[in-house]
Every structure is written in structure tokens, then in C-alpha cells.
Amino acid sequence: MPLNFDKVCALAIDRTMFDRRLYTQAVDNGVDVRLSTRVVGLRRNGNEIEIKAISGGREHLFKTPLLIGADGVNSLTARFINIPRPEIKVRAFAAEVEMPNEEAGSVKLFLGRSISPGWFGWIIPLDEKQSRVGVGVFDNSAGPLHCFKMLIERYPELFKDMKIKKTTGGIIPVGLPQRVYGDNVMVVGDVACQTKPISGGGLYFGLLSAGHCASVAVESLKQNNFTGERLSAYQVLWEKNPGKEIIKGLSYRKMFNSFSDRQTESIFRSLNQPFVRSLAVRYGHIDSPSDLIGKVLGRGFDLASPGSIIG
Fold first, then answer.
1. Residue 132 pairs with which residues in a beta bridge?
2. Does the pTM exceed 0.85?
3. pLDDT per residue over 95-106, tens digit each?
């Protein structure tokens, strides 16, 4: 189902360069950055949090009245304040590759339970010669590396000249935590499932939520008030944006994962018509995909029984 836009809808980010830029900005603004340092323990001591860390084989102890945990899907901070683990974990495998891209401006997505059960595969061109290729796996029926190999085998004409430069893997947490704060503590990013349930992207939602977290932290520091009641303002802010989009995305993701491959194919055949493509071009937005889905459903399209759409 090809879609052609007359505007830039998404950008491929050099994550290493992006992280370096964030590091530089932090240092320039007075942040004391500790590299090669791993937090191994947290303990409450009165109105402060004691942080035990290891660096260069030596143990270090830090104290703070406000701890912000951005320590990923297996977060020590989340366990410390008893935030439940993510409802859903998508396992992903990806590679940066060299391969010819005749359509360097087009992203390709692949669906199917044998290729990427419950999720999707992708080719994201970086230029005419380089791409990012990967798959995600929603359940435990197959490993992501196995699915990656299946994708390559299924489409030999696309990957026949591919050379893998670098591989990576990880877990994408999906869900909506009931709480992202506690006394003296807030969490942000993957630990708080601030990712898109439809695509798995976490950068934009994470940055939005980090802004909310920072604004509440600043006010708490001004008031010298780090109680859970005060920090709960962060929960209210992020549940509005991007939380509402996450709730919609979870609903659509659940619906999509209930379909068989045959049903999914039937749906996309029904969607592949000029009127729907015009809706996609007009309302499609990478950071709020539920808007487009809502527009399509609102025009009389029944996912349970795909057929004609009322124009």
C-alpha cells in the first residue's frame, strides 16, 4: 500500500550523534556527568535518597533529595519505588546495512506472523546506499534474530546485495504505568513506558515527558517539597500528553494483534484505495497515528468486516 507525501513526515536520527549533543548541552549547563559509572543500590535515608555506584572498581556514595530515574526497561529505580514491570515487552533485532536503495525516500514495512509476530519489520533508508533493517517480536513464539533471518529469506530481491555493518537488539516496553513517581523519585523514558504502542518509537514521547518531569522538578526544588503528593503533578501532565495518545495506541495495537495474517491482508487490500490514501496523506502523523485510524474508522470502515468505505 504505497503512500506518497509532498512533505517530510519523519527523520532518521543518528542516535550516537544525538546523544553526544545532549551530553555537550548538559555539560555546558553545569551538569556533573559521571561516565562508566553504574548504580548498584538505592536506599532511603530520611528525606534523601542514598545512591551507591561503582566506577573504576571503586564504590561511590551520592545523596539527593530528588532522584530522577531514566534507567531503562530493567530499571532499578522502578523497583525501588515499586512501579510494576511493563505490561508488554517487544523484543527487537536491527542492523545498519549497506544495500542499494532505488527508493531512498521510502520506508518499507513488513507484516506477518512468520516474519514479525504481533509487530512489524522495517527498512528505513538513510541514503542511496545505507539502510536500517529490523524486526520486532510481540510474543515469545519466535526470537527476533530468527525473524530477522526470515525477513531476509522472504524477500531475497530486496536483500541480495546487503552487507551488515552493525547489529543491535533490545526491548521496547509498551503500556501505561499507573504511577511514575514516589516520594523523592520520578521516572522517565522507557522505564515509564513512554513509547508509541503502534510503532515502538520512544524518542519523541520520552522528550515530551522529560519536559513535564523537569518542570515539576524545578518547582519542587523551589518549594523544597519532594513528597509524592507534590511530584504527582508529573503524572497528571504526562497522562495528558502523550498519555492520551498511548491509551489510544494500546487499544489499536490490541485490535491489530487479534487479527490473523489473512484478516490483516484483507484489511490492507480494502484500505488500498485512493480515498483512504488521501486521508493518510492529509491526517497521517508519525507522532499521533491514532488520529488517522480514527478518521478511517469514522468514515464507516469496519475492521471486523473490511469492505467498502463511505467517501
1. 96, 124
2. yes
3. 999 999 888 778
